[in-house]
Amino acid sequence: MRVLLVINENPISVDLVRGVLSLSDRESIHVRILLPVVLLRDRPSFGRLDLEWLTTRAECVAEKVADVFRARGLNTEAIVRLGDAAVNIIIEEAESWRADWIVLGQKLDEVVDGWLADTTVQCVTNYAPCSVKVVPLESWHGTI
């Protein structure tokens, strides 16, 4: 089973790890940690050094999260993808990698009357080429 875990620069919540591990038998899970980096085209001062710094920082965060899964004995890799919208990056990666699941976090305070308030999560759940698990994150206190 191929699981694409989408993260951002915030500390990863323990809830996301539990969300991935709840999907299936540990031996059959291959986890790909994806940190999408959105490039803003309307920033003319954004240069090559800025891009290198941003990419290096994102790679460090993704590897740190991947190490959490590796320590649990899971086949895990970490990648950083650049693009103009997080939704496009996530969906394209899920399609090209042929993911079985996409796992993303949703803070509970971003759920309004049972509806997801985060447009990225909404779009991914609507347009993903595979199943999507939205993990409710109770808080960022239980971080890894």
Walk me through the structure.
This protein has 144 residues and is an alpha/beta fold. The chain has one domain (2-137): HUPs (Rossmann fold, 3-Layer(aba) Sandwich). It has helices at 14-21, 48-71, 86-97, 119-127; strands spanning 2-6, 30-38, 75-83, 101-107, 111-112, 115-116, 131-137. Strands 3-2-1-4-7 form a 5-stranded parallel beta sheet, sandwiched between helices. α3 (86-97) runs parallel beside α4 (119-127). The two termini are 24 Å apart. The relative contact order is 0.24. The model has no long low-confidence stretch (mean pLDDT 82).
Give the helix/strand layout.
Layout: E1 2-6, H1 14-21, E2 30-38, H2 48-71, E3 75-83, H3 86-97, E4 101-107, E5 111-112, E6 115-116, H4 119-127, E7 131-137
Parallel strand pairs: 1-2, 1-4, 2-3, 4-7
Antiparallel strand pairs: 5-6
Domain count: 1
Largest sheet: 5 strands, parallel
> In which range does the helix fraction lie?
25-40%
Strand order of the largest sheet: 3-2-1-4-7
Describe what is shown at a glance.
By secondary structure, this protein is of the alpha/beta class. It has four helices and seven strands; from the N terminus they run βαβαβαβββαβ.
Key structural traits:
7 strands, Rossmann fold, about 140 residues, alpha/beta, 5-stranded parallel β-sheet, about 30% strand, globular, 4 helices
